[in-house]
Amino acid sequence: EPALAPNCTVHEVRITPCADATENKPCKIKRGRSASISVDFTPTVSGDGLTGKIFWVNQMGDLPFVGMNSDACSFTTCPIQAGNRQTYEYQLSVSKKFPV
């Protein structure tokens, strides 16, 4: 079932590799590794720019991934048009220095 975000409907999120997804568990990406993230979404507004952010969620709060390119137009088609379904694809590299 699609999820609603403030300015879009998220239809599907795919993370590869993510063996835990088959059991409906959060993905565990090891430090020093990479993961491919794809998000199918339909914006509810049109715009020239788009920002993408990824966070690591733990007991202490949300920690943003430092060094991530947040210009989402580099990873999907811009300008975005309301009602046009599209895909955002990002290659996430998790530094070995990232906190445990």
Automatic annotation (TrEMBL):
SUPFAM superfamilies: E set domains. It comes from the Eukaryota. Residues 8-99 form the MD-2-related lipid-recognition domain. One of its GO terms (cellular component) is extracellular region. It is found in: Secreted. Keywords: Secreted. Belongs to the NPC2 family. This is MD-2-related lipid-recognition domain-containing protein. It comes from Zootermopsis nevadensis.
